[in-house]
Structure formats: structure tokens, C-alpha cells
Amino acid sequence: MRRMEWVIAGAMLIVLVGLSVWRVLAWYEGPYESHLSRLELEDAVPKKQSEGDYVSSRDCRSCHPQPYRAWHDSYHRKMTQLATPSAMVGGFDDVELSWLAPPRKPGGERRLERYRLSERDNEYWVTVLNPVTGAPGGEARVVMTTGSHNHQILWIQNGDQGELVNLPFTYLVDQQRWVPRTDSFLSPPEDPFGLVYWNEVCIECHSTAGRPRVGQEAGEASDTKVTEFGIACEACHGPAGPHVEANQSPLRRRLQRDEADPNIVNPARLTANRSVDVCGRCHSILSYAGTDSWDGHWNDFLPGDKLESDGRLVLRPESRDPSMRRVVAGHVKAEGPRFLRDRFWKDGGVRVAGRELNDVKASPCFQGGEFSCLSCHSMHGYEDTEDQLAPQMDGDAACVQCHPKFEGDASSHTNHAVDSVGSRCQNCHMPYTTYGLLKAIRSHRVSSPNALAERATGRPNACNACHLDKTLAWTQAHLVKDYGMKPILLGKERRLVAAGPRWIATGDAGVRALAAWYMGWAPAQKAAGSDWMAPYLAELLGDRYSAVRAVAGESLNNLPGFGDLEFDYVASAGEAGVESRLRVQAEWANQLSDKGMSLPGPLKLDASELDRGAWEELMKGRNMLPLALTE
Ligand code: HEC
Ligand code: HEC
Ligand code: HEC
Ligand code: HEC
Ligand code: HEC
Ligand code: HEC
Ligand code: HEC
Ligand code: HEC
User: Fold this and answer.
1) Distance 204 CA to ligand 3 centre (A)
2) Regions of the chain where pLDDT drops below 70
3) Can you list the alpha helix ranges (DSSP code H) found in 269-375?
4) What is the distance between the alpha carbons of residues 63 and 55, in angstroms, rounded to a whole number?
5) How many Å apart are CA 177 and CA 545, to the nearest integer?
6) Binding site membership of 354 for ligand 5 (Cβ less than 6 Å)
7) How is the chain split into domains, by residue range?
8) Which helix (H) or strand (E) holds 551?
9) Ligand nearest to the CA of 466
């Protein structure tokens, strides 16, 4: 080779080596920094440590790539995460937040609190500001997040006590805004507001095999541990150490195909009764009073066990069985008089989101058959991460699989055209009577529309959830004629006032929120028409409950002509709410003269306004009992 070629080749080699060293350095610097930062985070949150037969989701991936992927995409995994950029959903770009914090104790004073959020090199910091001068005071780093797709809550360290306490603001993902935590729940504004510690309560359902180990003596640091953050494989399949061990042998792996493995729980192989308990451990109503916060919680419950043996499950509060009544009375005594009202309808139906077990167990389908969460949901073969339903299970197939006589054209049963929304099984048998996360959610108790249940419990009936412009008497007449039901006696309002306006005027805060949600729901707008709804929704813009204002504002934005209505539900209690109401009602009256709309029910129009006298009269019957429906 000629000398010149040697020189060129040498030069190229030097350039190549130089480039790769530079690449490596550049690469190293980035990950090195975030690695350090990650270590700091891991130091600040509860320890991740597998004990006993627990291993971790990482140990499953190589043998179960598909189930792993499905789980990795799920909200279960994302429930609890370190506060790294991939976990954060809220804006952090020098955001300033302030609120009038409610009293910490009944009868106390409200206090102005101000915070600034800022991001520095992928770290998220909260600075406390002086409420008067705005001068920066102490600051704390956000170390962990809860939630990823509806609401997100952030956690900071509580001094050196080893506990995490929440920032009192919640990020609403749909609305892309921060709101005070109290404005993300349906609760009376005067309810006392306490700080929340992740380690004591949230850990139970938001981590895998969490051990609270919260300071035994006052002032003592906590030593909280989890197997994994979020809801990972072993939360549903049980400790998997022996299973991993046994399957190291390729021979066994081959023989094992499609056989049940005694070392691991597959919920699909359990009876319905045990299978629902796997999920119900988190998706059910529990009582926390008297729980031991050191070793407490459900370390003892493992998938496959019977949940009812745990004394904390609050099942069938409406039961007439004396022993059940004693158990429930015990919970009420420990938790306070509002415990049942804040969670259940009077017949034991669940009012709050995320607590499906109680309703599934109360369904006739469960009591008479193998009905479980897996009749409709699949944790690895779902269609959409939202709701994780198995293919087609958001439709009639979910019911027809066990009730084949309704296969095909069920219109003789439903009395609506085959393709009408009024013919979908779930719309009549799993209506939206559960509330949570600022929206209505389907009840998980299979039931049939029935005037008696509404009269007895106040829970909206499925027919009027769509036919908002019709009275309960109208519904009852159809139920008698079409389904042979026995009529019951109905009072004046239920005979004369359309259900939508009646729920808004007389319902408790939870019923008002549901009624407001129905008015924004396409099937109800189709059944009842939407032109008349605005003045009623406007009545809720000044509601005492901020969640009711929130839902009403959303639904108003869904009505023709009110799409760009400016309305901030957080800021519109009291006077501001009245102003918004008048503004919307005036706007509606304008539109009215063009379209010739009319109001349903007895609320006759006086040219362009609601008959206020009749409305105020109706409002006198409102259910004013304080109600908190928290997640
Ligand atoms: C070394 C390979 C291997 C590892 C690691 C492994 N598994 Fe398995 N697993 C298998 C084999 C083989 C089967 C049986 C064949 C099949 O159904 O695919 C199985 C079956 C299962 C089943 C179904 C059991 C049944 O009775 O239907 C579940 C659930 C399961 N594994 C969960 C896990 C979890 C959770 C982890 C991680 C903690 C894990 N596996 C780790 C090999 C493994
Ligand atoms: C008994 C079990 C349980 C406990 C205890 C619990 N949660 Fe939850 N949480 C759930 C379930 C189930 C859901 C899902 C609800 C749904 O989607 O309807 C949920 C959802 C949420 C969400 C919405 C998540 C998202 O991605 O939008 C937030 C925020 C939340 N919980 C906060 C908390 C906080 C804070 C605590 C502790 C004070 C707590 N939860 C305690 C079971 C629980
Ligand atoms: C929230 C509960 C839950 C979590 C978390 C979960 N699974 Fe499952 N798993 C189930 C259920 C329920 C089934 C039954 C089939 C279904 O629903 O898709 C199942 C079935 C399985 C099966 C057997 C059937 C199949 O699809 O091959 C394997 C293997 C499995 N899971 C592995 C895992 C692994 C690995 C993880 C974690 C990466 C995990 N699971 C996380 C609930 C869960
Ligand atoms: C260790 C507690 C725990 C267990 C066990 C558990 N879940 Fe969950 N589940 C949660 C929490 C917490 C959420 C809220 C996650 C979110 O929405 O960000 C949730 C959310 C869900 C969601 C809603 C996702 C969405 O779209 O909002 C479904 C559906 C669900 N779980 C079904 C099940 C089923 C079925 C099982 C049993 C096979 C089960 N879960 C077991 C705690 C649990
Ligand atoms: C008959 C079918 C069916 C059964 C059985 C069922 N679900 Fe659901 N589930 C649904 C449907 C449909 C939705 C969507 C509801 C909606 O649009 O509000 C849903 C939604 C959910 C959600 C999300 C609620 C939200 O935030 O929107 C959770 C959590 C959930 N189911 C848990 C469970 C659990 C746990 C069980 C068993 C104890 C169970 N489900 C049994 C059909 C079912
Ligand atoms: C896993 C099977 C299964 C699924 C899925 C199922 N059911 Fe059922 N259902 C049953 C059984 C079994 C009974 C009790 C039969 C009896 O008592 O005659 C029942 C009872 C009922 C009843 C009460 C019957 C009565 O005479 O009071 C209604 C209504 C009902 N189911 C509707 C539905 C609807 C709507 C769905 C879908 C959302 C559904 N079911 C899903 C199995 C199921
Ligand atoms: C328009 C409302 C409506 C729709 C839609 C509807 N049902 Fe019904 N269903 C009722 C009413 C009302 C009853 C009567 C209950 C009674 O007599 O107590 C009933 C009763 C039932 C029963 C118990 C009595 C019987 O005939 O076996 C079952 C099972 C049932 N429905 C299943 C379904 C299925 C499956 C679908 C979807 C294909 C469906 N329903 C759709 C209103 C409806
Ligand atoms: C999910 C929404 C929905 C539910 C639930 C529903 N309907 Fe309907 N209904 C409609 C719609 C939409 C129409 C208009 C025609 C169509 O599209 O089918 C209608 C039409 C009707 C009609 C004929 C038109 C009228 O206004 O006189 C009657 C009667 C009726 N429904 C009664 C009922 C009864 C009784 C129930 C409960 C057993 C019920 N509907 C439940 C949506 C619903």
C-alpha cells in the first residue's frame, strides 16, 4: 500500500475513534445525571423490596412478553410512579397556584395558601410563597405521582418522617388545569380538610404488596415498603417466586403448556366468587377504622383467598340479616354517621367510582351464575386501555353471552328500534348512577328500571336518564304496559315534573351531578332533545358543591349555542355563580325567541324566563343532607 493511503486510513481511524469517544461521553453525561436524580427519588419514596415469595414484573417479561406488554400499557402500571418526565402529565412551567384552604378542623378559619411549581433539569419543585407578599419560602421536590389519565396527584416528603404528603392541588387531565384538591371531589365546602399521607391509605390499592409500617410512636419515622409501585403482576397473580423457579427447566416449560400451574394464580381459572375477590381487594368499599398502621392492611390476603373473611369489607349494608346488620353497625360506629350515606344508595347500590365488587356481588347474574369481572374485562386481551374491556364487551354481547334468548333482534323486549340507543342492554340494566372523577360511571349492579327503586332510594331510573323531559309517572305507565309491572303510588312531583328538572331541583348533590351529566350525554340529548336544557343547567352553575358546578359547566359546553361559554367552576361559588346563571338564561332566552322552544314540566314560560315562583317552590323539597362522594 502506498504511503498516502496509510496516512488517509490513519486519519480516518483517528476521526472515528474520536467521534465514538465523544458519543460515549455525550451519552454518558445525560443518563449519568438522570441516573443520579433517579437515585435521589428512590431514596425519597418508600423502599422497593420484594419479601417472601415475591419477585417482580421484570422477572416475568422474558417468558410472558405479550401479557407483560398489555400490562405495561395499562393504567394499573401507571398508578404510582416516580416523578420523572415520563410520569408527569400536568404543566409545570412556572405555574402559580393559590387557594383559600378550608379549615383543618370544624369551625376553624380558612387560610390563603400560595405555591409555585417549576421544572429544573427534569426535576419538579414546589415553592411555598408568602400568602401576602408572594416572597418565596421553603421548597420541596415532587418525588412521586398518583394517577395518569383522569386526575394526577403529586407527593412530597413530609420532613424526615419517611412519609409522603400530597400537594393540595390535583391536575385534571381532560381540562388541562390544576384545581384545589377539594374541587376535584364531590364534597360539602364546609367539610374539614386534612392532609393525606400516601403510606397509610393509598398504598393499599395503589401498589403491589405494600407494607405501611407507619411510625409506631408519634414522631417516629416510618419504614414503608412496597414490592412494586403501581398494580403489578403479583397483585393479581400472587407471589410468583416458586413459579419462576419451577419454570427454569425448559422440559417443564414444554410439558406445562395449557395446564394449570399450582404455583401461580390465574384469575380466569378461579370460580367467579374467588375471581372477583382478586379485584375486589382494591375495587370494593372498605372500612379503615381501627386498622393497624404498622403491620396492617391486607398483607394476609392473597389472590385465591376469600375476601369476606377480612373484617374490613363493607358488604350488603341494606341486609336484614341480623349478623350482617351487626357488622355494618360496627363499621358505622367506627367511621361516623355519614359512612354509609357517602358511599351507598339506600338499597346497598354503590354510589362511588372504583368500588365495583359490592355491586357485582349484588347482581342477580352473580347470585345465579358465574358472573365475574372477567365476564366483561380482560387484563391482557383488552381492546382499549380505557376501561380494559374484552372485545365487544362494551355492547350487548356482554349480556347475550349468558342470556341467549335476547340474541339478534331484542326490540320486542326493549320496545325501541333494534339500532336505537334505547335497545342497548347496558343502558337499561347498568345505567350511569355511579359518580367519581367528575363524571358519571355505569353502575356495576345489574338491575332493571323500576319506579319503586327510585321512590325508595332517590337513585335516578334508567329510562328517565335518557327521557329527561318525561315524568316518572310516564315511565311507570310504560313499564306497566310493556313489562307488566305493578304500578305504585307516586307523589305530585313525580307525576307532574319532568325527571331532569326534578332531579336538579330536589336531588341531593350526587343526584344533581348525575342529572347534569345526563344533559351532556348524546343518547339523552337524542331522546329528550337538548334545546330546553340550558336554563336548568344554569341553575347549577352557582351550586354549593363545586363538583356539581363542574359537571353542569361541561354539559352546558356540550349544548348547541353554548360551546364557547366561558365558565370557571372553581371560581363561581356564590355571587359569581348567580351572575353566570343569569348570563346563560338570558342567552337562552335570546335563542328561544328564534326557535320557539319550550320547557318540559310545569315550569311554564313567562315570555322568556323560567317561572321562578314554581321553581323556588320545587327547590324547597331539595335534599340538603351533606354528602361527600370521594373516590
Ligand atoms: C422461565 C419462564 C417463566 C417465567 C420467568 C415466568 N413464567 Fe409464568 N409461566 C411459564 C410457563 C411455561 C407457563 C405455563 C404455560 C403457559 O400457559 O404459557 C406459565 C404460566 C403462567 C400463568 C398461567 C397459569 C395458569 O394456571 O393458567 C401465569 C398467571 C403466569 N405464568 C404468571 C407469571 C408471572 C406473574 C411471572 C413473573 C413474576 C411469571 N409468570 C414468570 C413460564 C414462566
Ligand atoms: C380501596 C382501594 C383504594 C384506595 C385505598 C385508594 N384508591 Fe385511588 N383508586 C382506586 C381505584 C379502584 C381507582 C380507579 C377508579 C376508576 O377508574 O373509576 C382509583 C383511582 C384514583 C385516582 C384517579 C387516577 C387516574 O389515573 O386518573 C386518583 C387520583 C386516586 N385514586 C387517588 C387516591 C389517593 C390520593 C388515595 C389515598 C388517599 C387513594 N386513591 C386510595 C382504589 C383506591
Ligand atoms: C390487574 C390484575 C392483573 C395484573 C396486574 C396482571 N395480570 Fe395477568 N392476568 C390477569 C387476569 C384477570 C388474567 C386472565 C385473563 C385475562 O383477563 O386477560 C391474567 C392472565 C395471565 C396469564 C395467562 C393467560 C395469558 O394471557 O397468557 C399470564 C401468563 C399472565 N396473566 C401474566 C401476567 C404478567 C407477566 C403480568 C405483569 C407483567 C400480569 N399478568 C399482570 C390479571 C392481571
Ligand atoms: C392492588 C389493587 C388493584 C387490584 C388487585 C386490581 N385493581 Fe383495577 N385498579 C386499581 C387502581 C388503583 C386503578 C386506577 C388506575 C387508573 O385509572 O389510573 C384501577 C383501575 C382499573 C380499571 C380502569 C381503568 C380505567 O380505564 O380507568 C379497570 C377496568 C380495573 N382496574 C379492573 C380490574 C380488574 C378486573 C381487576 C382484577 C382482575 C383489578 N382491576 C385488580 C387497583 C387495583
Ligand atoms: C357486565 C359487564 C361488566 C362486568 C361484569 C364488570 N364490568 Fe367493569 N365496566 C363495564 C363497562 C361496560 C364499563 C365502562 C363503564 C362506563 O362507560 O362508565 C366498565 C368500567 C369499569 C371501570 C372503570 C370505571 C371508570 O372510571 O370509568 C372499572 C374500574 C371497572 N369497570 C371494574 C370492574 C371490576 C373490578 C369488576 C368486577 C368486580 C367489573 N368491572 C365487572 C362492564 C363490566
Ligand atoms: C356470566 C353469565 C351472565 C352474564 C355475563 C350476564 N348475566 Fe344476567 N343473569 C345470569 C344468571 C345466571 C341470572 C340468574 C338467572 C335467574 O335467576 O333466572 C341472571 C339474571 C339477570 C337478570 C334478572 C332476572 C330476573 O328474573 O330477575 C337480569 C335483568 C339480567 N340478568 C340482565 C343481564 C344483563 C343486562 C347483562 C349484561 C350487562 C347480564 N345479565 C349479564 C347470568 C349472566
Ligand atoms: C329499554 C330498557 C331495556 C333494555 C334496552 C333492555 N332491557 Fe331487559 N328488561 C327491562 C325491563 C324494564 C325488564 C323487566 C324487569 C322486571 O320485570 O322486573 C327487563 C328484564 C330483563 C331480564 C329478566 C326477565 C327476562 O325476560 O328474562 C333479562 C334477563 C333482561 N332484561 C336482559 C336484557 C338484555 C340481555 C338486554 C339487551 C339485549 C336487555 N335486557 C335490554 C328493560 C330493558
Ligand atoms: C339510552 C337512552 C334511552 C333509554 C335508557 C331509554 N330510551 Fe326510550 N328512547 C330513546 C330514544 C333516543 C328514543 C327516540 C327513538 C329512538 O331513537 O329509538 C326513545 C323513544 C322512546 C319512546 C317512544 C317515543 C316517545 O317519546 O314516546 C318510548 C315510549 C320510550 N322511549 C320509552 C322508554 C322507556 C319506558 C324506557 C325504560 C324502560 C326507555 N325508553 C329507555 C332513548 C332511550
Assistant:
1) 20
2) 1-2, 15-35, 255-257, 293, 296-299, 593, 595-598, 600-610
3) 272-280, 322-335, 356-361, 364-368
4) 14
5) 19
6) yes
7) 85-186, 265-290+308-431, 448-631
8) helix 546-557
9) 8
**Closest ligand 4 atom, CA of 205?**
2
pLDDT at 311: 78
Task: Give the residue whose CA is nearest to atom 12 of ligand 8.
Answer: 527
The model scores a pTM over 0.85: yes
Question: Looking at ligand 2, which residue's alpha carbon is closest to its atom 41?
Answer: 202
Indicate the residue type of 199: N
At 175, the amino acid letter reads Q
Pocket test for ligand 2, best of 171, 204, 206 (most atoms within 8 A of CB): 206
Choice from 58, 63, 228 to test ligand 1 binding pocket (greatest atom count within 8 A of CB): 63
φ, ψ at 36 (rounded to 5°): -60, -45
Spatial separation of the C-alpha atoms in residues 147 and 75, rounded to whole Å: 8
The residue whose C-alpha atom lies closest to atom 34 belonging to ligand 8 is 463
Which amino acid belongs to residue 354? G
Residue 294, C-alpha cell as written in the block? 404498622
Closest by Cα among 151, 142, 158 to 199: 158
* CA angle 418–419–421, rounded 5-degree value: 110
DSSP for 469-490, written as a single string: TS-HHHHHHHHHHHH-PPP---
List all residues 6 or more positions away from 363 whose beta carbon is below 8 Å from its beta carbon.
Answer: 371, 444, 445, 446, 447
